């Protein structure tokens, strides 16, 4: 007679409560289901699939946590084990081999890093007929990309011609925009490499992984023409999921939970890598290695003074490991103190932010204004993001406040929930006005007092803005009349706005003609290529929206190509 049980429980995840169910029959775990959660979907979906497989295979909750999601997976395992024990279930665990193994593999191309750039590089090399192994230190793919939107430029592509049939754009125009917005801090050769190849790269990866791009819902003013595109989900998880699936279906190999510890060399040529995994040391011998290991924003020891007082919103796994395992190679680097600082953040934990870009942009389109704690407007709310960033940095405490009416808040709320916030989370902010972040609603003086804003001045500021919206002229900041909308009703909403960063803009130096890393003697390191955030300079000190994805995809495409050419040259040389 079958003894079936559905055991439910809750665990404290990174973003809130996770509700789960363990299905058991005759003291055997049949299934492990997550019923509800508020974690980052792109990470959580991958992690839970792996965790479920390990639990069922081992018939135990005493399994390894998943790297990159240790706290959350430990909480799930601990809670589920307790719940099952409380139900008097007697599990019969399956013994696993914990003996350390030394594993040796060979590949034409080895890729370090499973984010956007690494997956594109690996896919490009694989498509050219080479054996490729990708190594990722986390227990899931995506790197920093997994937290981004999918928005990217597609200048010069067939995809762009389909989406913008009437639009006139060119690599030269994109180059000029990057140069202008970075205030001439970009490295021209890298920028040219990016703008001249993003079209081919987008067409390649779209065909390879069956990606369906559309016009991005937000066309930011830093771009002189409409050229930003995004996937239908607007999420980079779709990109990571589809590209990795295509890579594996075509014969590529992915090793998760494998942290690179050493780069193999022979007579100044890179010949492979050594990675540590669970109970394994993996040595991969390769003709070429592509480094796409991401940035170092979460590494406090590597952070410079420029980032002080600015919230970090990137993955805590961006720890700059490459700067340790590459130490013996004496690689050339530059501008490690550069960070991509954005506006549109709220501080959800001390020093940690969540982005509000889509919601904040919608608010200002509908007439919201930005004020400081003195109640004064601080910026043209329809200007480029860099102006917002700088204006907020100039305020006391490096914080501003977005003031809006109720009709605007309804639209803002919908976009917050769509992008990384939960309804319960937002409700908690309003219910606890004495705690960060600032989310308050009520009459104008009421919200001013709750947010710590000078109420008399805020009343004057709103009155003046109402008059400007009525006349369609803003002599104070020059805001375009199409965004001068009056406030309606007597209920106002105030949401804090802080600057935040995730992306590091400096990094290693490469040879633009080969994508090979350079050493401190300014010589190419034979057999060692790089792509993505680990390479600094293409976007300068201040990348425009969509341009880090543009760099990741274009540089990955080229690194995979040049690594493949090196493999072909080596095979030809050995054959002769």
TrEMBL record:
Keywords: FAD, Flavoprotein, Oxidoreductase. Its cofactor is FMN; FAD. InterPro entries: FAD-dep_OxRdtase_2_FAD-bd (IPR003953), FAD-oxidoreductase_2 (IPR050315), FAD/NAD-bd_sf (IPR036188), FMN-bd (IPR007329), Succ_DH/fumarate_Rdtase_cat_sf (IPR027477). Its EC number is 1.3.99.33. SMART domains: FMN_bind (SM00900). Residues 13-87 form the FMN-binding domain. Pfam families: FAD_binding_2 (PF00890), FMN_bind (PF04205). It comes from the Bacteria. It catalyses: dihydrourocanate + A = urocanate + AH2. PANTHER family: 3-OXOSTEROID 1-DEHYDROGENASE, FUMARATE REDUCTASE. This is Urocanate reductase. It comes from Furfurilactobacillus milii.
